[in-house]
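Question thread 4412

I'm putting together a teaching handout and wanted feedback from people who do this every day. The idea is simple: show students a protein as raw sequence, then show them the structure tokens that encode its fold, then repeat with a second protein so they can compare. Below is the first pair exactly as I plan to print it.
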Amino acid sequence: MSDDQPTVPIRCPECGTETRLPLDTVGDALERHNESRHDGEQVATVDPAIREQVAELAAADLGLTDGSN
């Protein structure tokens, strides 16, 4: 893993844990955690503020926003 790899904050309120994971491992790590600890329920997630920012950036990159909200 490169030191330049961006990390993403992950929270699991039920376990009381917070961590930062490399961007390219987040999906698999969340799936493994939720499967093994929470019977597949989506308890551990990406920090909601980060998730919203990423969604907005992706929408802008895809041309889905035109500024006429």
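The second pair follows. I'd like the answer to focus on this one:
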Amino acid sequence: MIYLRSFRLSCKTVRDPYIYPYHVFAGKAKDWILFDKITILYGDNASGKSTMLNILANQLQIEGKENATHNPWDPYFDQFTKECSYGLGEDEYGRTISKIPPGSRYIKSEDIMYEIKKIQQETVLQEGYLYEHAKKGWTKEQRDEYKNSWEMKRDMENMIYSQEKYSNGETALQIFDDYLNMDALYLLDEPEVSLSPRNQVRLAQQLNQASRFLGCQFVIATHSPFLLGTLDAKIYNLDSPNLDACQWHELENVRYFYDFFKQHEREFQ
């Protein structure tokens, strides 16, 4: 299912050419980005791929969206966001959908690392676990009673044991699995962080399955060759002047890996 069909950057300019985020995308607003079930925003550091995801999250008002600046008097990110355009997809009857599905979210690499650290710290883990129960409608009295119960102690021991049993990468894969629900849009910012190459491929295969069978759509910012080569994705190169769509093996970062191992080919023989 495709919930987000298209996106176009603001083509307006401001007097100061260095104002964020106008300077990041200067000259790149010529064409629309057309999304597939999985779409990758590829680019080197400072290419704007994370900024573009956050613009989308703010435009769509989905969980995980962030303010781009801690300065409340800086209007430029909100201004730029409002100047960008997007189009939604169609339902099974060919009608344009009216909104992004509930449960959609913007997931950043630091969100995953925070969840891992939260699991590693018992006090923080306990408070986070109680907070989840509060979100489910438990009263303060119910939470206080549960906090001092043997059930809470058992649940904490189980979660701490799980963290000790698995590496950060395996825990990250489990967190992604917990985050993903059916029929939703997910914006993923560098999900490969903390994952080994093998686990990056496992995650990519998991995302392929979710898009094919669970009705999920993904927009992913990455420059990992393992994700780029495994995901069944449409790829846009933010390093190119016109945000060109391209094949994964044409990308500079992937070619760098290829050339590096080609130089050391004899060592593998």
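Top answer:
Good format. For the second protein you could add a caption like this: The radius of gyration is 21 Å. The chain has two domains: 4-110+181-268, 112-165.
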